[in-house]
Amino acid sequence: MTGILKQTTVLGSLALALVLTGMDPGTSVAQSSDKADIKKHDTTPGGQYAPSLDVLKDLGVEIPGRKPDDPVMTADEFRRATNIYFQRCAGCHGVLRKGATGKALTSEITREYGYEYLRDFINYGSPGGMPNWGTSGDLSEKDIDIMARYLLIDPPQPPEFGMPKIRASWKVHVPVDQRPTKQMNDLDLDNLFAVTLRDSGEIALIDGASKKIIKVIKTGYAVHITRTSASGRYLYTIGRDAKIVLIDLWMKEATAVAEVKIGSEARSVETSKMKGWEDKYAIAGAYWPPQFVIMDGVTLEPKKVVSTRGMTYDTQEYHPEPRVAAIVASHYHPEFVVNVKETGHILLVNYEDLDNLKITTIAAERFLHDGGFDATGRYFLVAANARNKVAIVDTKESKLVGLVETGTTPHPGRGANLIHPKFGPVWATSHLGDETIALIGTDPEKHPESAWKVVQSLEGQGGGSLFLKSHPKSDHLYVDTPLNPEAEISSSVAVFTVSELTKEAPEYKVLPIGEWSGISEGARRVVQGEFNKAGDEIWFSVWNAKDQESAIVVVDDKTLKKKAVIKDKRLVTPTGKFNVYNTREDVY
């Protein structure tokens, strides 16, 4: 089992400055491909998952120092190529093209292939998951020509975003002494839903009982997640533009009371939950620059910036762009669990003394992405999706206890906790790259023979799943497939009955959520089920384009029948939904 490195990092005026000389990992991760094998293909569901770094396209970058044999590229072409790369490619290949979920595309590697190969590869894609940008119509012939030339020169680097810039972005709209000392509205906050309106840069607060929109609040662009403070008073949203917005639910009307920007691109935010530290701190992790920032929990004042650049856990080569993925708050120690994607490290960041910050570094697996706790809140399970594995950390003992191989490209969201009729407590993940759902045993005390291994693999509708969900009071496991290429599958969900999982081949029921929405236009992709506090109904987003109608469909968990459809012109591209109680208590 991989080891643990415990380190005490003193980050302050007395800190020792370490200057690391980077070693290019590109040649070690490059994928060899037979040029003769390039052909048209239908992009796989896993290949469709190419997270874009939309906001980086707006940063001004210039052509790096030219080399004598660089291809001719005008300034306008370079800007166009940079925009396309940041939008379409950087999410998988990395901002600096050093390789991430996708392969490295440094100029040393691309020049080995040459212009024609790059042009054809971009146009046709590959059976391994590279999208067919040309034949799909996503990129024009001219754009493909520009991109092939662009990949032959050194990549530009976006600007850094250190504490001066972070502090300059920090705003407190309502000071703490002007906020109420008790809840000033009659909302049932525990059954409130925060719904991401992705393309409008907003969230909608929806009452779980009436199904009415209480308020729409401006946030950062394309909110990735919303988290609830330990007290249940505050919501923290983070957009892909790395803007965090703090919302006070106790005010007469829920109000954004503070904001800060912690980088140029980000995905994760969390708050302190350890007893005695409730609402004390917040933390957010950036994709660019690769760093995390610890803030005051009720004002968002930035307190500490920590870079995640460093060595990969396995080959021990320097990586310049190890992005921060999922972050959760420990229930056993005053710590944040920070997952560093490209280097494969899980950092246990102790926030007791920010001036003398202690970080326990756990070597897990590369390409860490998303994950959640088991039902006890002790064990954290996180997908290393490009390695087809799930890493398991004991947050009480601060060590790695398991590394489990699952299906192709696991993408659990926060996962789903079930009581299996044979194997006891299990945690489930679905997959982008195949139709399977892996059930991993999580009870080493009462079911040691099942702990930290895949005890059962279910077959769902198909690949392209992003989230699955259950609830302690539910006998069902819901699995979405919004990225499946088949419209009928992407607009529906599969439901397994937990008490029937002992069958040789457990069956599932298909719920036609898209059809139930009453919407006839668009792709009607159905994404991310979220239970209400009572656990007797589950909400699904019917996600269409910005200029098309979208909706939320509510399903009765007992009958698996349509219970309600929420439609409103303000529901623009609804995606993630976060019930205040379930999010605060880690119920999933």
Written account of the structure:
The chain has 588 residues and is mainly β. The protein is built from 10 helices and 36 strands. It has a 5-stranded antiparallel sheet with strand order 1-19-18-17-16, with no helix packed on it. It has a 5-stranded antiparallel sheet with strand order 2-9-8-7-6. The protein has a 4-stranded antiparallel sheet with strand order 5-4-3-36. Helix 3 (75-93) crosses helix 6 and helix 5 (115-124) packs across helix 6. It is globular, with a radius of gyration of 23 Å. It starts with a strand and ends with a helix. Residues 1-43 and 46-53 have low confidence and may be disordered.
Give a short synopsis of this structure.
The chain is mainly beta and 588 residues long. Helices cover 13% and strands 34% of the residues. The longest helix has 19 residues.
Helix content: 10-25%
Mean pLDDT equals 89
Radius of gyration: 23 Å
Q: List the uncertain runs.
A: 1-43, 46-53
> Can you tell me the overall shape?
globular
Q: Number of DSSP helices?
A: 10
Number of strands: 36
Short descriptors:
single chain, 588 residues, 5-stranded antiparallel sheet
Strands, helices and their partners?
Blueprint (H helix, E strand, L loop, with lengths): L3 E5 L17 H4 L15 H4 L26 H19 L13 H7 L1 H10 L16 H10 L12 H7 L1 E2 L19 E6 L4 E6 L5 E6 L4 E6 L5 E6 L3 E6 L6 E7 L3 E7 L9 E8 L2 E6 L5 E6 L2 E2 L6 E2 L4 E6 L5 E6 L4 E6 L7 E6 L4 E6 L5 E6 L4 E6 L4 E7 L10 E5 L3 E6 L6 E6 L12 E6 L8 E2 L6 E5 L6 H4 L2 E5 L10 E4 L1 H4 L8 E7 L5 E7 L7 E6 L5 E5 L7 E6 H5 L4
Antiparallel strand pairs: 1-19, 2-9, 3-4, 3-36, 4-5, 6-7, 7-8, 8-9, 10-11, 11-12, 12-13, 14-15, 16-17, 17-18, 18-19, 20-21, 21-22, 22-23, 24-25, 25-26, 26-27, 28-29, 29-30, 30-31, 32-33, 33-34, 34-35
